[in-house]
Amino acid sequence: MAMSLLRVLAQNAKPTISSIVSSNLQRETCIKCVAIVTTPISWSAVRYNPSFAGKVTANQLWDGVTSVSNAGRKRGRGRNAKKRIDLNRGQQLGIGKSGLVYPGLTGPALVGKKMLSISDQKKSKAPSEAPPVEKKSRFPEIPALQRGYSGRKFPGTSIGPPDPINDYEFEGFDTRVLEYKMVSHMTGNLGRKMRVSALVVTGNGKGLAGFAVAKAPKGQAALRKAKNMAAQRLQYFERYNDHTVFHNFAVKEHKTTLFVQKMPKGHGLVCHRVLQTICQIIGIEDLHVKTEGRTGNIQNVTKAFFRGLMEQETHQELADRVQLNVVEYRPELEWLPLPVANPTCGKSRDEPITEEDFDFENMYYQDGKIPLKKEKDPMYRYTKDPVQWKKFLQIHKDRNQIMARNMRIIHGLEPSKEDIKLRQKPLK
Amino acid sequence: MPRIPLRRSFDIIKLAYHGCNNRPFFHIVLLKNISKRNAPPIEMLGTYDPMPNMFNEKLVSLDVDRIKFHLASGAALSKPVEKLLGLSGLLPVHPMSYITAKRNRQKQEAQAESQAQPAEDGKSEES
Amino acid sequence: MAASIPFRSTSSYSTLFTRLANLKVRRRSFAHTSKALCASSEETPPSSSNSDGRDPFPVFVDNKVQHLLSNITGFDILKIAGPHKKHLEKPKYRLLTDAELKGEMTKARERLSKRLQIPPYMNPRKPNLTPLAVDPDLAQFDTSNYVFTDVTFGVKDRDRTVVIREADGTLRIAPWDVRDRMNQIYNPREGKEYLKPQMFDEQNLERMISEKKYVYILDRACCQFEPDDPDFIRTTHRVYRAIDSAGDHDDLRSTRHFGSLAFYLVWHKTADSLLLDMLNRDLSSDAADLVRLYGILHPQSACAGVLGQLSPDSGSTAVVQVYIDTSSTLTSELQLALQAMDDAGKGHRSGLNK
What we know:
heterotrimer; A: alpha+beta; Double Stranded RNA Binding Domain; Ribosomal Protein S5, domain 2; 4-stranded antiparallel sheet; flat; B: alpha+beta; CATH 3.30.1320.10; 5-stranded mixed sheet; structural constituent of ribosome (chain C); Ribosomal_mS22 (chain C)
């Protein structure tokens, strides 16, 4: 038995054994090998091991890394503690990569009376490959249009309609997150205690909308709380022709000022992204807003915009106040005078208003202050940048040629691109 | 006193070059004879586009009323303008136009003959 | 050129004066040109499309006819003003008293009524082929033709003198297509193109008609062509026929083309479906005006005779009845529609009385 083992080792494991023998004892190699193999007791020499690895179990080691003390858990520690990892994942103990069976070690040495050698053995099945470790992304993939303002954050995303109240379902409602942030306060016991604060706006896109701020230890809870709170604070805003505001106005909340401008249909929303979101929820399509001061304070921006919308004067209210017909002149209707509001009493007052007294554009700014409109140089972009200027000149040089060429092609006066290609082909 | 007597100055209707490279285009203008070709004109009286368009036409526009007025008040004409006005029927046809036409005709006849000659020769050889 | 100037300026003044004297002769040729042009635009040859062989233009410009046509056009101010494609611009607001608002509305109506000017109904123009001067000595003076355009200040496009000196030496009045092109080059108009747009080709036109873009085609034709251009006449008449067969007369109401449509249909005695459309829409006065128009355009017809005997105060129903009795082809339908309209009117009146 021992001899067979020796032979086996001599055949297969020779390099390993010889490597541990010092070079100046080459002549005694063979004898030593025999000695080592034949006396298994002397193989495990007792010596001092400074490592803890032999003293504690794997479980104990993992506990040391992953567990948190009871007192610590109360204070909220260990939330981000590491998790246990299965280090043997995808491996089968006792079988190597080559799948060889070593007779006497990992398999029977004898079959009947015949002694087996390694070469006699068939390779066992290669250990089944470890299932591929799926790289779990930290966040699920979100389609671009539902992603909000930026990659992975909540602001700008939709969180669905508010929860139904007593069989009343909020049909056609949508809720958008405007702000989502960690807030904290200090406690005697726990120290810095964190919570999540969420500002959401909910509405039906037909003038009905509300907003609310709510805080909760968990983000989802904060969002739900804010959403349902917003659903109970709905306000109705009248819109002009269901697409814009009634007039220009300015509104100020602390250090945040908004200059809101009425815009014609087709203009779109040109404003702060938070205001764009609110407008989409309310159902305003065309608006221009200049935001000044603290534009990062989203709660103030929201408050100011809602207050401004609420304080608007409709055309009917204006007509009743001044006792005159409010008449609109639209460019696409050939500046045809179209009365949009008449006094409710059915008759206007007799004396007309002078043009100086009525400036609809700047009528609703406070204290007679009107926004400064600087005239922009239309050529600014080109004249300041030499590269752009060069491009501009290039465009100027052949600005009509493409169109003229197209017209020639249409009227069959010039060979088309396909014709030219055909002509340019070599004759063979 | 200048030694060389000053050139006599008078009004003249002539062509001013206003095209760019390889694309001539002319304005018919009233100028002093001593002024430069493209000097700011006293009056612009028309245009002349010497490149035939896709309908094989050369376009000339003439402010006929003003041209008549200036002719009557003694303005001179440059030769090309005189030719143009002659062709338009506003003035008698310029003699040079007739000469050019005759030369062109002769040239064409000669060409036709020279083309006809080898063809006849070839025919005779064949027969 | 530079060498020739001093020569001409110094010595050949006498020759120039003789030439100026000759100008008279040549002037006559130009006068002849303009006369010929005027003649060609006025002396319109008889139309082959109409059996009478009359010229419709003098009838069309008659005040009575114009009045009737503008009456039946209708005046829906919002349709006339219509939303046009414009650059984005903010609406303007004013606070007006009732009196001011009324004044503004009147002004706007006056302004917009100019949009309803009816394009003239004319026979196609004929080419003028008589040369002004034939000069065989000038043959082959150049390889291309010379086109001379008079750009004298204040000359209108229709009166503009355009002559062409052909390569064989002939001087003649430019054909109509050349004149149109020259007008567009030297007096460009918005909406008109130098070459005829392919939209007016037979195939494309049929497609546009099948898409029912009548007003667009007619508007564009008005921009592109002169009213006596054969292309204009062909296009508009094709569209009028399509509208009449499809019964889409209402599309043209309150546009400048409704008058032309009515005139075309009445001139060709095919106005029955239009009359039926008017009766179905309860436009009794319009229907009566259409019948009166028929009487004016066809004075020899039986209808005109009976209309002349009718008293001027007689109602619109009586006038339409005359047409149905004398010259209609859809007699039964028209009679039914007239009856229905009459009954509805009576019912309405009795309802008012109650």
